Amino acid sequence: MASPPKLPPDHDLRQLLRFSLDEGSIWLGSRRMVLVHAESLGRLRKALLARLGRDEARSMLLSTGFSSGLRDAEFARQLRGGQSGDDIFLVGPQLHMIEGAAQVRPVRQEIDRDSGQFVGEFTWHHSWEAYAHLQMMGRSDEPVCWLLLGYASGYTSGFMGRLVLFQETGCAATGAPHCHILGKSAELWDEGAQVFQLYDVEQLESLLQASGRRMADPLTPGLHQPMDSGPTTTVIDPAADLSQTMGEYGLLPAQLTMLERAAHAGIPLLLQGEFGTGKQTLARRLHKLAASGRPFVMLDCQGLDPDALDIQLFGEKMRSDLGSTMHAATHALAGTTGRTGRIEQAEGGMLYLHNIEHLPLLLQDKLLDFLRHGEFLRHQGQMPVAAHCQLIAASSANLEQLAQQGQFRRELLLRLQTVQVTLPPLRERMHQLPVLAETLLMQYAAKYKALPPSLSEHALQTLMHQPWAGNLSELGRVLERAVLLTGGQDMIDTRHLFPLMPEHPHTALTRHGSLTEVDVRRLPGELCATLLSSGVTLPDIESQLLEFAVQQSRGNLAAAARQLGLTRPQLAYRLQRSAQNPSS
Fold first, then answer.
1. Predicted model pTM
2. 75 neighbors 35 (Cβ within 8 angstroms)
3. Spatial distance between the Cα atoms of 7 and 513, rounded to a whole number of angstroms
């Protein structure tokens, strides 16, 4: 029998455990952690058992542990992606120890890279769950480490990309000297095995499939194969579900119903809200909902002088003083007697006027006449031109106040206010940001044919604490950049969202289990001392560090450059220089 696998050094894991005392949070990499008394967790288990019964409580704890294990499997892929499959897998047991779950010792670990099958045995010493059960409820007649067991199954399933189920064959809560677990790929268990009675397999398969969409880039051949055939190219259909697609703008159900009816009826709409709240995107979605296949024409009323704006909106009569034969012939072939404006271009469809507060008063009068009679005069023209289109006006100003000051026509405002909605700023609905971010990430992943990315907990918390003066537009730019930086291969972390945001010193864990202040931009003193005493030269260190970063990134120079804080050309230059001048 092969000797048990040895746990690799865990300094890479310990460095990721950070205590941010000023903000009152603990982080393991990009995931927030909480120190909780084992006794309190034991009381929670006892309450669950009393209220739900053994089977329901066990199912809940198993699925909770399974979800946690899936997340750690993603973490392992990012952390040790360039190392051997065994060392990558052992991140899970080592994390379990760092997190205080138990002392994990591998007994047997068989990973078949060709078939993707797994068999493993581990022992748990000092399991908190067995200890808490003994303390709260006394000795048990069956194994009770359900949260830890679910974690083992979730972690291994996430790592292998297929369902792996663990069974606790010995438990300290039953009087055994320690806990013992056995895990196999689901298909390796006998059909009537007791392990299938523990888990809600359908629920676990669903959790695994969702995780697989985030982790579809395999680590090594046979490991973690994609759950899907390739990157998603599905684009969210704006007209598929009105409440879902427009709810991201913070609108109430009554407002959604009003917008839907108004869009189909063709009456004017007024969209108000700060810059970046999504007025233009909402207008486009209304167009797809009610006028798909017909024109959607835009005009920004800001930044143009009155005559230019008049021509852009209403068109221009052909001037006889400039009329060459060629000019006249062009209009004759087009069936017009001058330049067409946006109103005529939007015939039968929708006209979106952005920043309508900048429309001069005289042009407001002309627009009001068009809304009343369906006719208008071109610039310097005298013959009415008939047209029909739905008007959607947008403004970030207080039009009511402008009307009171005589800077906006009251009659036009009343006409536009037939159907009016105000899109709230993002800062007033931060509770919706996680859903908004997920929706935008899916759209950008489809746009760039990347795997659907996910946000780390630290990244999400960082997003929640931004002022977002640019509202949805700013959020979209930040998330689009993150998708481009990661390429859908990595979980999006704070460094992808805000590459220039400085990291602050924090408190970390030493190998002896004590806390120490760490400057994230300084190497630990013991590492510097080791390097100096080793006799390795600075060029040697740089060369090896570059090679290691490229290896960890599996040859992806852009990813390696991000790890090193370099641009891709800078890394390529340093690699070339290192190759040309190898150390003697």
1. 0.59
2. no
3. 18
